[in-house]
Amino acid sequence: MGGAGGGHGLLAATFVTSPPPTPPASGRGVRRALAEAADSFAGVSETPRLDAELLMAHALGITREALLLRHLDDLTPATFAPLVARRLNHEPIAYITGTRAFWTIELRVGPGVLVPRADSETLIEAAVEHFAGRVPATILDLGTGPGTLLLAALDQWPAAVGLGVDASAEALGYARANADRLGMATRARFEVGDWAAAVAGRFDLILANPPYIGTVEQLPPEVRDHEPPAALFAGADGLDAYRVIIPQLPRLMAPGGVAILEIGATQANAVTALLIAQGLSVCLRDDLGGNPRALVAT
Q1: CB 215: neighbour CB atoms within 10 A?
Q2: Closest CA to 90 of 31, 58, 46
Q3: Nearest alpha-carbon partner for 286 in 103, 121, 117
Q4: CB atoms < 10 A from the CB of 163, how many?
Q5: 3-state secondary structure 201-263
Q6: pTM above 0.85, yes or no
Q7: First and final CA of the chain: distance in angstroms?
Q8: How far is Cα of residue 30 from the mean position of the Cα atoms in its chain?
Q9: For 45-80, what is each residue's pLDDT tens digit?
Q10: Rounded mean pLDDT of 137-149?
Q11: Looking at residues 257-276, what average pLDDT do you find?
Q12: 93 vs 17, residue with greater confidence
C-alpha cells in the first residue's frame, strides 16, 4: 500500500503513523502472551515455550501448527489466563488440554490416568523391529491406562486385534472412548483385571508399562500431586509389579512371540534377572535420551 504521493503527503503520513487499535485488557496479542506465559513457566516446566504454545492453541481451538503459522498476531482469548494458572499449579499439560499425542495417534486423557510419555514409544519401536516383515495377530497390553500401547500397536498393524487390561475402571473408560474415536472399537477389547491373572490364551505381542517407581523416590510436583499413585509406585524398590507380571509371561506368549516391558533407568539388571529366571532371553533397548527403557523378552 505504498502508492500515496504528491499533495496527499499529509494524509499518507497520518495513515502510516496512526497507532493500531488498543486491544481490550483481556485480549492482549498472542505473541506477547506466549512470551509472558513461557517466562512464568520457567520454574515449572522443562519446556516452557512449548507448554505456552499448547495451551494457547487449546484456548483458540486450533492446532499448534496453525497457531505458529497464522495466529501469532491474534488477540489473546480470555480463556488463556485460567489455563496458565492451572499450569503454574503444576497440573500436567495433557490434563489441561485433555489430549496427548503418542506414536501415530492422539489420546484423550485426564485426571485418573497416567499421562503417556514419549519414552514409552521405545516399546513400539522395539516391537516394530521384532516383527519386521510380519504382523503380530494378537496383542496384549498389561496396565493399558487410556489404551496407550495397545492402540498405538493396533494403529501400526491394522490387521491385529488386542486386549488391554488395567486395574482402574476409570482408566479403561478413557481407553474405550479412545478406541471408539480412533475407529478401533471392534479390534480392541478392554477388561478390568489384576495384571494377567484372568487372561486366557496366547499373544504374539505382550506390552507392559507397569508402575516402577519406588515409594521413597522423589517425583516432580506435576507427577506426584496429579497422576494416580497406583500407576506410579510399586513397592520400596519399584519392582513389585514385575514380580507379578513376569511369572505369567511364559503361558501368555505364543510361539515366536515377544514380551516388551518398560523399566526405570536403574532397573535393567534386576528385571532382566526376573525374566531369565522364567527361561526367557532378554535384550535391552534405550530410549532416545540414551536411557535404559525397555526389555525385550523372547
Answers
A1: 13
A2: 46
A3: 121
A4: 21
A5: CCEEEEEECCCCECCCCCCCHHHHCCCCHHHCECCCCCCHHHHHHHHHHHHHEEEEEEEEEEC
A6: yes
A7: 69
A8: 26
A9: 999 999 999 999 999 999 999 999 999 999 999 999
A10: 98
A11: 97
A12: 93
Surface-to-core class of residue 92, CB atoms within 10 Å of its CB (0-12 exposed, 13-18 middle, 19+ buried): buried
Sign of the four-CA dihedral 68, 69, 70, 73? positive
96 or 19: which carries more pLDDT confidence? Answer: 96
Q: Which residue has the cell 495466529?
A: 71
Task: Give residue for cell 478390568.
Answer: 192
Question: Is a pLDDT exceeding 60 seen at residue 10?
Answer: no
Following DSSP, what letter does each residue of the chain receive, concatenated? -----GGGHHHHHHHHHPPPPPPPTT--BHHHHHHHHHHHTTTT-S-HHHHHHHHHHHHHTS-HHHHHHH-TTSBPPTTHHHHHHHHHTT--HHHHHSEEEETTEEEE--TTSPPP-GGGHHHHHHHHHHTTTS--SEEEEET-TTTHHHHHHHHH-TT-EEEEEES-HHHHHHHHHHHHHTT-TTTEEEEE-STTTT--S-EEEEEE----B-TT----HHHHTTS-GGGTB-STTS-HHHHHHGGGHHHHEEEEEEEEEE--TT-HHHHHHHHHTTT--EEEEE-TTS-EEEEEE-
Q: What is residue 22's predicted lDDT score, i.e. its pLDDT?
A: 36
What angle is formed at CA 194 by the lines to CA 188 and CA 200, rounded to 5 degrees? 55
Q: Is 14 left (phi over 0), alpha (psi -120 to 50) or beta?
A: alpha
Residue 291, C-alpha cell as written in the block: 536411557
Tell which residue, 251, 246, 291, 234, has the closest CA to residue 272: 246
Question: If you count them, how many residues does the chain have?
Answer: 298
